[in-house]
Design brief:
Porin, 4 helices, globular, disordered N terminus
Length: about 240
């Protein structure tokens, strides 16, 4: 009889333990979940409240091989960039060569499909100059500001401001010198889309690439070979 009483007492002790431990575990899970939600909320506030800080966290993806294909909204090819260790080729929708860009040190030579030299882009990291085929005249200057924004200027009349390229949480906003919106480069769910001033998508790519290297294709002051050359310089020389 004593043994039976002891077993009953032991069973009662374990039941008491479980009765106490379950609420404690539940309370711990609730507290942990609350902390996790609080942390997530803080991160989201930072992301939406400080556009430039979020932009600095976007990864720069340079390319030295492969292709980046840009498409129109209907899905048809608009143009293609084909990359090499020392530059790139820009191809039209039918894969015909528009321009060939070759890098040597800090100079990017621009040639057409007939191997004729069209011009040059020189510089690295924060400042690039777009020059004519004689290299004697600087046509445009593209340079980064201390706050991380960029600007396009011309030297024709003493570095006149043509475009401002501002960092945003979604990518880049392009404005004229008088702050009229010209377009955007937006990063969304692995896609880079190039938008017009009205917000409509002009073309896009699902390939991994750098947003700032796409900006030249919205700079209407540059012709296509110059856009491709500045793209190559930003892809290889600005990181």
């Amino acid at each position: 009889m004593k043994q039976i009483k002891k077993e009953n007492t032991l069973t009662c002790d374990w039941n008491s333990y479980f009765d106490l431990s379950v609420p404690i575990i539940s309370l711990s899970l609730i507290l942990f979940g609350s902390v996790s939600c609080s942390n997530n909320k803080t991160e989201n506030t930072v992301a939406t409240g400080n556009e430039k800080k979020v932009q600095s966290g976007l990864k720069f993806t340079s390319r030295k091989d492969g292709k980046v294909k840009f498409k129109e909204t209907g899905g048809s090819t608009y143009f293609t960039l084909k990359f090499y260790e020392d530059g790139l080729k820009m191809l039209d929708k039918k894969e015909n060569e528009i321009a060939r860009i070759t890098k040597k040190e800090d100079k990017y030579k621009i040639k057409d499909a007939n191997d004729q030299v069209l011009g040059y882009v020189t510089g690295k990291k924060t400042k690039f100059k777009i020059k004519d085929n004689s290299q004697e005249s600087t046509l445009f200057i593209f340079q980064r500001q201390q706050d991380g924004d960029w600007k396009l200027e011309t030297e024709d009349v003493g570095e006149q401001l043509l475009c401002k390229i501002g960092k945003r949480d979604y990518g880049w906003k392009i404005e004229s010198g008088s702050e009229t919106e010209l377009g955007k480069v937006k990063h969304e769910n692995g896609r880079i889309s190039i938008r017009g001033s009205n917000g409509n998508t002009l073309f896009y790519t699902n390939d991994s690439f750098s947003g700032i290297a796409v900006v030249p294709f919205l700079l209407q002051q540059l012709n296509k070979p110059q856009q491709a050359a500045l793209c190559a310089a930003l892809n290889l020389g600005s990181n």
